[in-house]
Amino acid sequence: MKLSLLTVACVAFSITQVIAFPQLNAQALQGLLKREQKSKRCPFSHGDTRKHTKRQSGFDPVAQRVSTTGKHAWVAPNLAAGDKRGPCPGLNALANHGYLPHNGIAPATTIIQAVNQAYGMSLEFGTFLALFGTAFDGDSISLTPGYSIGGPASLAPILSGLGLLRTPSGLSGSHNNYEGDASASRGDLYVFGNDDQLQIPFFQRYYDALLSDTPAPKQYSALFPFRQSRFNDSVTTNPYFFFPQFAGVLVAPAGFAFPPRMMANHSEKYPQGYLDKETFKSFFAVSGSPGQFTYQHGYERIPDNWYKRPIGDPYTIPAFLVDILEFARQDLRLASVGGNTGTTNSFTSVDITALSKGVFNGATLLEGNNLQCFVFQLIQAEAPGFVTGLYEDVTAALKPLTDEISKNLDGLSCPQLVGLDQSQYDRYPGYQMSGGAI
């Protein structure tokens, strides 16, 4: 069966939201995990996800070597001339090596291909992330839809669709819709004043948490205390901390999972990868020694003699979900939408029953098709509000996405979400300050 890119993205979204939204208390989350383990319908149950997603564990030095010479030789960005670099080290490195346009403004299709070619991210995962960035922070109605990996930019034909009302924000301006608080290496916007600059103290803690001479999967597992501490940093220092379903529960963990999963170097000794600390520094544009690190914004580099994930074992959405759940089981707040309520140490989760006006709740959401029904209807209900002011004809801009969602809802006998009680977000000043969140 042939699937369109939007179909793939919508299916991916439904999968990711199993842990992303809504609030799951301890009992509900444990029930979800048991449901996953017993499920016979989903091939990606918690107990055997790795079995289904791990297709190749050997090392092929020819197929896995990533070029850093010729057309992919590293070239410094000319930030003064307008080259864009932003909060994602991996995308910055791809632009510096010519896998993305050097100016940092790229078509979605190029981004999908680049993250697959250089890092071994699956096409489905890359499609999902690229389409999301394009819709909310780029231009989905241009001749070649895409977005800036840094700040606002205008460039025909990528960011010049007819009916575009303003310059798209790019990833550096995507607070609470793509970029979010509690990042692994970036500061909270309303505390630090920017969200795309690496903060050396956070990098130092990340560096210290990376186990030496250890396979990448174990390196990731060992990052939990650091992950938890960064969440606590936001709770204790940022009265405007907000943790939404996409920018928070889904994207924030990527900063902890992506480096060991897709920046680790692979070899005969470490066929699953090993993220040594020099490689880690290179990908994050950091030089110097511990205690004396320096950072040069936008200068991320793929190391020479670097080998990506095995060709037959791309990093997929289900594999990412297992990584998210591994940490969420140890601290349920990491799978809970919510935020501080105007003071530090006031983290409160969103009441989903009230938000959905009683149509959904934590107990019935895990029954039958309710979760899929709720998530897809939530996208349909909230998406127009997030792109109002960006597109002249919001309905037309979102029509391909909403049509695909409707097709996925056909025949499911969904409880009908007739509206949302947006007042449930009123207690969160961080939500209000960013003009909403997703």
Note down, in words, how this protein is organized.
With 438 residues, the chain is mostly helical. It contains 17 helices and 8 strands. The strands form 3 sheets. The chain has a 3-stranded antiparallel β-sheet. It has a 3-stranded antiparallel β-sheet with strand order 4-7-8. The protein has a two-stranded antiparallel ribbon with strand order 5-6. Helix 1 crosses helix 6. The longest helix is centred in the middle third of the chain and has 19 residues. It starts with a helix and ends in a 5-residue tail after the last helix. The N terminus is likely disordered.
Please count the beta strands (DSSP E, at least 2 residues each): 8
* Main sheet strand line-up: 1-3-2
> What does the average pLDDT come to?
84
Main sheet overview: 3 strands, antiparallel
Number of helical segments with 4 or more residues: 17
- Poorly predicted runs of 5 or more residues: 1-54
The fraction of residues in strands falls at under 5%
H-E order: HHHHEHHEEHHHHEHHEEHEEHHHH
Helix content: 40-55%
Please state the structural category. Answer: mainly alpha
- Distance from N terminus to C terminus (CA atoms, Å) equals 31 Å
